[in-house]
Amino acid sequence: MLGNDRPLGFGLPMKREGSIASVTVSRNAGGMLSEHMEALLYQTRPLNEIIVIDNASTDGTVDTLRRCYPQVTLLPLHTNTGVGGACATSLTYAVGRKHDWISLFDQDSLPRPGQMG
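Given the sequence above, the corresponding structure tokens read:
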């Protein structure tokens, strides 16, 4: 359903079950990533997996994620592959995990409660 009140497609309701994952591309996210992570962690329907791909940050982003969000799947890259490279790598990972739904974000996105399911 779109906005919980309109059917998607040909009048058929959108499937509500299934595995939902988020993928976030980050690079030197520093202090801005915590608000994004909290928005993902406290969705109305809990996500099955939260994936962050870090594009070779130099500001301690990876250490912060490991320390503050151990439940998050972290994919640290040793080379900055750009947004396209990070998206391709992380989506390949997420698809391989057989999630039914995958949402892609950048580090400063703030998903609304209930947006993911």
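The domain at 20-106 is CATH 3.90.550.10 (Spore Coat Polysaccharide Biosynthesis Protein SpsA; Chain A). Try to locate this feature in the token string yourself.
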